[in-house]
Write a structure and sequence with these properties.
Blueprint (H helix, E strand, L loop, with lengths): L1 E6 L8 H13 L4 E6 L5 H11 L4 E6 L1 H11 L5 E6 L5 H6 L11 H11 L1 E12 L4 E4 L2 E5 H8 L4 H5 L1 H12 L5 E7 L2 E13 L3 E2 L3 E2 L11 E7 L2 H13 L9 E6 L1 E6 L4 E4 L2 E5 L2 E14 L15
Helix pairs in contact: 1-5, 2-3, 6-8
Length: 316
């Protein structure tokens, strides 16, 4: 098997990068050829993944957090090269959803365990979401696209905050932004019809987990040709905290101010521009058009990945 490690050298801390080298050596014992390339700036992983696919690599291994994983996905979409992940970010939502072992300083063995998924796991094809902005920008997302509050929080986090503060950077920024975020009048169009109201947050999901903490779309499947949409309506921080409580205790699906749909296409326009992110990476503002790209990406997930995430049988 021919593997290309696409490494964010800033990912992880302590001895993580040394463990990545050891993982590559371990994989060579399984007759794998391993090439390592590193990103130098935001967006580099897209081009590196495209090159890996063009050069016939069987697997492109995203070594980093959700942002690195998103970029590798954008480079691999529509190709035969599969995505694998050695997670080392702040949230690692995709890895958590499918059950890939997640490294942190007190669990260094997770890197080797995640590497073994590459040779022991199952290969599947999954959907992606495709976002279009008014200026013509297009971006694919693996897990979710957020519009409104969470994108505003993502924008507020300064470079380096997550490396210094970890999850604390999201908590601090979340508190600072939430108390000032009122939401805005918006119109959301899905296959189910129109939703009009003061939107605090709209999340278009391909997976079930949201932010590693909440299961916002409990019925979502990664290969059903549909996207799951959660829309929080209301006004200001009291509504936001009500929604967060509902998510925490799994009661959000019963809240009349929370709207949950499945759709193949979605558009959202707002009275005032709302910020937008894909897989926690800010990309622009509304209006947006989103559609599902069925079975656009090959992935390698653990043999024991949750069955309720998938509708189709594994390829191997």
């Amino acid at each position: 098997m021919k593997l290309c490690f696409i490494v964010n050298p800033a990912a992880g801390s302590g001895g993580f990068q040394k463990l990545v080298v050891e993982a590559a050596e371990h994989l060579r014992q399984f007759d794998c050829t391993v090439e390592r390339v590193e990103t130098g700036a935001k967006g580099d992983a897209i081009g590196l993944a495209r090159r890996a696919a063009a050069e016939g690599f069987d697997v492109a291994v995203a070594v980093g957090g959700d942002g690195t994983v998103n970029e590798v996905c954008n480079g691999l979409v529509g190709t035969a090269t599969a995505l694998a992940v050695l997670p080392a970010g702040t949230a690692n939502v995709y890895a958590a959803d499918v059950g890939i072992p997640i490294w942190w300083p007190l669990n260094p063995g997770a890197v080797l365990n995640a590497a073994e998924v590459i040779v022991t796991g199952q290969r599947r094809r999954i959907d992606l979401g495709r976002l279009r902005l008014a200026d013509g920008t297009e971006r694919y997302f693996l897990m979710w696209c957020g519009i409104g509050l969470d994108a505003a929080i993502s924008e507020a986090i300064k470079p380096g905050d997550t490396r210094r503060l970890g999850v604390g950077a999201w908590i601090l920024s979340g508190l600072l932004v939430t108390f000032d975020f009122m939401g805005t009048r918006a119109t959301v169009r899905t296959d189910a019809g129109l939703v009009k109201g003061r939107v605090l947050l709209a999340v278009v999901s391909n997976g079930q987990l949201y932010g590693r903490v909440w299961r916002m779309s409990p019925q979502a499947k990664m290969d059903d040709g549909l996207l799951d949409v959660g829309i929080m309506t209301g006004h200001g921080w009291p509504s936001t905290f009500k929604h967060l409580a509902g998510l925490t205790f799994g009661q959000h699906v019963k809240d009349p101010d929370f709207h949950l749909y499945q759709t193949k296409v979605l558009s959202l326009s707002a009275k005032e521009a709302l910020p937008v992110h894909v897989d926690a990476e800010p990309v622009g503002t509304t209006p947006v058009a989103i559609e599902v790209e069925p079975l656009a990406l090959s992935v390698i997930v653990p043999q024991n990945a949750p069955h309720n995430l998938f509708e189709r049988a594994a390829l191997s």
